[in-house]
Amino acid sequence: MLLNILSNVRLDRYTNSFLPTMPRPTVATPAQVRETISSLLREAGITGAASAPSFRRAVSVRKVRERLGGGNPATIGHEINALEKDIVGIDSQNLSIPEVPADIAALMGQLWQAAVGIQLTEVLQLKLQAQGIADSAKSALVEEQLRNQVLLQELAELRATAVERDTQLAQAKSQNMVLTEQNTRLQNELQASGARASELLAAQAVLEDEKTTAIAAARERYDGLSKQLLQETAQQRQANQTEVSRMTSQSKFAEKREATLLGRIEQLEADLLEVRTQRDKAAGEVSALKYVNVSLKTQVDEFLKSRTHDTAGPPPEGPAKRRGAAKAPPLG
After folding, report:
1. Mean pLDDT throughout 303-318?
2. Cys staple from 18: which of 87, 137, 210, 280, with CB 3.0 to 4.6 Å?
């Protein structure tokens, strides 16, 4: 068993020195090794003193390494030997060991020689295996060196690519600054168009109020004239025929005017809807915003001109109308 431990230690050292690509064993502290050995002894039912065979059956370098997940075999073997002296030495101090009989000593000598021969054969096999591992490790080392050269070349290419990307990034940052300034300017223009739309909405509200007032006044005037005509029918039939014709024409004029105002209101609502649509699309159609503003301004100017023309006084009344107004009682 001691030869197996030494062979494993030498083989591990040899393979670790010639195989740099293999993972290194996990480092275990002596305290962790002692705790693992104690756990193995407790699992084997050994809580106090024990004999050497039972201790060796319960504890080995392989079992400790499997439990720890790795570790230095030399350190583990040293801790196993130290604990074995502490645990096994308790009974060995109180026991008197008898002398080995001659025939048993001869058999043990023969057994020892056979074991040594087998161990030497195993050592030679291990040396041959280690030599093969060393040769493969050298080949792997040459391959790794070639791979390292390729990786260095790729690293130089990647560095050049990184420098080029840094340059592109700087250019992209400058372009981003320019686009940010353009975006700010467009946002300001969008706010200005929103303020213009608010002004148009306010103008539409004023026009709607004026339209309502004008319609109410026209209706009130029409009702008064109708009552007046009904009261004067018996007295001035002939005169009222002319007055009825005049009132009919005025009624048609009022209806036409009302229809005209309604058409203008619908036109204003359509214009307002168009302004709202243009305001919603202003973020994507900033390049055409100036043209739309000029178009809206032209439409508003035309509307104001037509409104000024409509608000001018009606045509002067005829002689018959003046005579009818003189005979009719005052309204209200």
Report:
1. 69
2. 137
Domain boundary residue among 96, 115, 130?
96
Give pLDDT, residue 314.
54
Whether residue 83 is contained in a domain is answered as yes
User: How many separate domains does the chain show?
Assistant: 2
Q: Is 21 a member of any domain?
A: yes
**Domain for residue 156, yes or no?**
no
Domain ranges, residue 305: 188-327
92 and 192 part of one domain: no
Q: Give the integer Cα–Cα distance in Å for 36 and 44.
A: 12
Residue 76 and residue 192 in one domain: no
Q: What is the pLDDT of residues 117-161, one digit of tens each?
A: 888 888 888 888 888 898 888 888 888 888 888 899 899 999 999
DSSP string for 214-259: HHHHHHHHHHHHHHHHHHTTTT-HHHHHHHHHHHHHHHHHHHHHHH
List, for residues 247-275, the tens digit of each pLDDT value. Answer: 888 888 888 888 888 888 888 888 888 87
* pTM of structure: 0.25
**Same domain? 75 vs 206:** no
Given a contact cutoff of 8 angstroms between Cβ atoms, the answer to whether 308 and 233 are in contact is: no
In a domain, 103, yes or no: no
- Whether the CB-CB separation of 37 and 79 falls below 8 Å is answered with yes
Give yes or no for a contact between 283 and 190, defined as CB atoms under 8 angstroms apart.
yes
More confident position, 231 or 310? 231
Q: Which amino acid is at 30?
A: P
Residue 250: CB partners within 8 Å, gap ≥ 6? 222, 225
Predicted pLDDT of residue 94: 47
Report d(CA 241, CA 224) in Å as an integer: 17
Last residue of a domain, one of 79, 96, 113: 96
The pLDDT of residue 328: 45
Nearest CA-CA partner of 288 in 194, 190, 174: 190
User: Which positions ≥6 away from 71 have C-beta within 8 Å?
Assistant: 25, 26, 27, 28, 33, 64, 65
